[in-house]
Specification:
The complex is a heterodimer of chains A (about 130) and B (about 400). Chain A is mostly beta strands. Chain A has one domain: 3-layer Sandwich (Rieske Iron-sulfur Protein), CATH 2.102.10.10. Chain A is built from 1 helix and 13 strands; from the N terminus they run ββαβββββββββββ. In chain A, the strands form 4 sheets. In chain A, strands 1, 3, 4, 5 and 11 form a 5-stranded antiparallel beta sheet that branches. A 3-stranded antiparallel beta sheet of chain A has the order 2-13-12. Chain A has a 3-stranded antiparallel beta sheet with strand order 6-7-8, with no helix packed on it. The longest helix of chain A is centred in the first third of the chain and has 7 residues, at about 30-35. The model of chain A is unreliable at about 1-10 and about 10-15 (pLDDT under 50). Chain B has 11 helices and 26 strands. The radius of gyration of chain B is 22 Å and the shape is globular. Chain B is about 25% helix and about 30% strand. Chain B has helices at about 10-25, 50-55, 65-70, 130-135, 150-160, 180-195, 240-245, 290-305, 370-380, 385-390, 395-400; strands at about 5-10, 30-35, 70-75, 80-85, 90, 95-100, 100-105, 110, 120-125, 145, 165-170, 200, 205-210, 215-220, 225, 230, 235-240, 255, 265-270, 275-280, 285, 315-320, 325-330, 335-345, 350-355, 360-365. The model of chain B has no long low-confidence stretch (mean pLDDT about 95). Chain B has 3 domains: about 5-110 and about 235-305, FAD/NAD(P)-binding domain (3-Layer(bba) Sandwich); about 115-230, FAD/NAD(P)-binding domain (3-Layer(bba) Sandwich), CATH 3.50.50; about 325-400, Enolase-like, domain 1 (2-Layer Sandwich). The chains are: A mainly beta (about 130), B alpha/beta (about 400). The interface between A and B is medium-sized, with 15 and 16 residues. The complex binds flavin-adenine dinucleotide and FE2/S2 (inorganic) cluster.
Chain lengths: ~130, ~400
């Protein structure tokens, strides 16, 4: 399911600049994410939680698929986003929750050479752990 | 070689057991035998969203299609009546006998009943059928008396308010949840009920509960409360009879080691029914938490497959009451200091329970983001600087590294 054209996690400075004419939306800078580790943004009317972990940025739908708590109020640990509601753990790249075998929607992210973070407001949902 | 795994009880433990076995490519026979007629379901919603609005979206644990695809057999509505430890087989109420290479005793518990209390408006809440009966009686304007201010009683009180009932909560201790949280934090939970419109009767035992006609009279101190429905939530008794009759060691549950093994080869016990030796706490403990049941189900699956695995999790559970999210991690029966992080008044805080400076447990209201780190502090038996712990600007993970 992961779309090759849009890497989920964009190591700082390595990702290509957003192609013109795409629907990429500027949402943050790597610098501010590195400082605060997470940020809640709204793109095309959707609340999106940005996370910064191990030098990479990822984006997830902010509303938890379990009981609608806000993931941006959670934490990132060991490659997982942990929901503050009931501690469900979602893979930071794919949104997959191993224990529940369910997936939190994620979004493609890009970071340009200047450290500006872009999100494409197109939800991706994995159907298995390997998606 | 393991060819057949039989689980006695088709609840939380057994569902996770089956899922984990298949995920790990076990291709033998899996049979889950359940006394209840229902497909495996989870209990937490029964006192929360399912009770409030019948939301059963997340209720069932193993979808029918999944069981068919993964070849997991459910034998429902047929309790196991006999266990042959030496021959490693179980006998069902319908007379069938099933032999197995591994047997998992996951029979949970049943609601503890008050002696000499009878009536169709006096209910307990353990099963889906119990929830159905409560649902019928919990009409808007109904007078509900909840006996017992533990987690289930507290949740039923909150759900009763959400359904428009007039609710009174009776607790023998000075505060609700005091046994687990202590009086200071119990008092905060009492305020949560007051804020939610629940009447409290604290620090007095119930003298009697008598139903006559459609009215139940609950005698507390020198007062008599009249109710249309009473819910009694005074704990559970583990379903140990089968293990006991089979000669397995039983002492406050079925006694097992940290790998969930009974004394008999190939026979395991897990979940609410199991008294499990806990390496972190250095003693045997029987807890009634969803997450421990799930994790123990997975540990048993691993051990059956020869992947040696122990249960050493510090424990974690949650409760949802009104619009608030409560979480607890660790295990503290005594403490000499409570460190608060956040604000009691705003109902957004984490309380750390310390004993000789060591973090034993943490309880959070609306600060679930502290709980993962708090669990690690408990597991590490950390002795963080209390001032740093109290400071909401401290990253709790930094306190771990200081160890
Ligand atoms: C209303 C309610 C709310 C709860 N809320 C929370 C919560 O918010 N958070 C939390 O952490 N925990 C909560 N719990 C506790 C949690 O549900 C339990 O810890 C968990 O269900 C334990 O799983 P288990 O598999 O050990 O037992 P169970 O899920 O109880 O399953 C045991 C099954 O075995 C069956 N059985 C018994 N004897 C036999 C036999 N001889 N043959 C065949 N089958 C048998 C029983 O009928 C039962 O279906 C709640 C419990 C209740 C009742
Ligand atoms: S709301 Fe996210 S885990 Fe429950």
């Amino acid at each position: 399911m992961v779309d090759d054209a849009a890497r989920v996690r964009a190591p700082e400075g390595e990702a290509p600049a957003p192609s013109s004419g795409g629907s990429w939306v500027e949402v943050a800078t790597v610098k501010e994410l590195a400082r605060h580790k997470k940020k809640l943004v709204e793109v095309a009317g959707e609340p999106i939680a940005l996370f910064y972990a191990d030098g990479a940025v990822s984006a997830m739908y902010d509303v938890c698929i379990h009981k609608e708590r806000s993931l941006s109020k959670g934490i990132v640990m060991g490659g997982k986003v942990i929901c503050p509601g009931h501690q469900w753990m979602f893979d930071v790249d794919t949104g997959w929750c191993e224990e529940e075998e369910r997936c939190q929607p994620s979004y493609p992210v890009r970071v340009d050479d200047d450290g500006v973070v872009y999100v494409e407001p197109r939800q991706r949902i994995a159907r298995t752990a390997d998606d | 070689m393991t060819d057949t795994v039989v689980a006695v009880g088709a609840g939380q433990v057994s569902a996770v057991l089956a899922r984990t076995l298949r995920r790990r490519k076990f291709d033998g026979r899996i049979v889950l035998v359940g006394a209840e007629p229902h497909r495996p379901y989870q209990r937490p919603p029964l006192s929360k969203e399912y009770l409030v609005d019948g939301d059963d979206e997340d209720l069932y644990l193993l979808p029918e299609q999944w069981c068919a695809d993964k070849d997991v057999e459910l034998l429902l509505g047929t309790p196991v009546t006999g266990l042959d430890v030496a021959g490693r087989s179980v006998t069902l109420a319908d007379g069938r006998t099933i032999g197995a290479d591994a047997i998992v005793l996951a029979t949970g518990g049943r609601a503890r009943r008050l002696p000499d209390v009878e009536g169709d408006r006096i209910l307990y809440l353990r099963t889906l059928d119990d929830a159905g009966r409560l649902d019928q009686l919990l009409q808007p304007g109904a007078r509900l008396v909840v006996v017992g201010g533990g987690f289930i009683g507290s949740e039923v009180a909150a759900a009763g308010r959400a359904r428009g009932a007039e609710v009174t909560l009776v607790e023998m201790l000075e505060q609700p949840l005091a046994r687990v949280l202590g009086t200071q934090l119990g008092a905060v939970c009492a305020q949560v009920h007051v804020r939610g419109g629940v009447q409290l009767r604290l620090g007095q035992p119930v003298e009697s509960i008598v139903q006559s006609g459609d009215v139940v009279r609950v005698r507390v101190g020198d007062e008599t409360l009249e109710a249309d429905v009473v819910v009694v939530g005074v704990g559970i008794e583990p379903n140990v009879e089968l293990a006991d009759a089979a000669g397995l060691k039983v002492d406050n549950g079925i006694v097992v080691d940290e790998q969930l093994r009974t004394g008999a080869p190939g026979i395991y016990a897990a979940g609410d029914v199991a008294n499990v030796h806990h390496p972190l706490y250095g003693k045997s403990l029987r807890v009634e938490h969803f997450d421990a049941a799930s994790k123990q189900g997975a540990v048993v699956a691993n051990n059956i497959l020869g992947r040696e695995s122990t249960f050493a999790d510090p424990y974690w559970f949650w409760s949802d009451q009104y619009d608030l999210n409560l979480q607890y991690t660790g295990h503290a029966t005594s403490w000499d200091r409570v460190v608060l992080r956040g604000s009691l008044d705003d109902l957004a805080f984490t309380a750390f329970y310390l004993e000789d400076g060591v973090v034993r447990a943490a309880f959070a209201i609306e600060r679930g983001d502290d709980i993962a780190a708090a669990g690690q502090l408990v597991a590490a038996q950390a002795r963080p600087d209390p001032e740093a712990l109290a400071d909401v600007d401290t990253d709790l993970f930094d306190l771990l590294e200081g160890e």
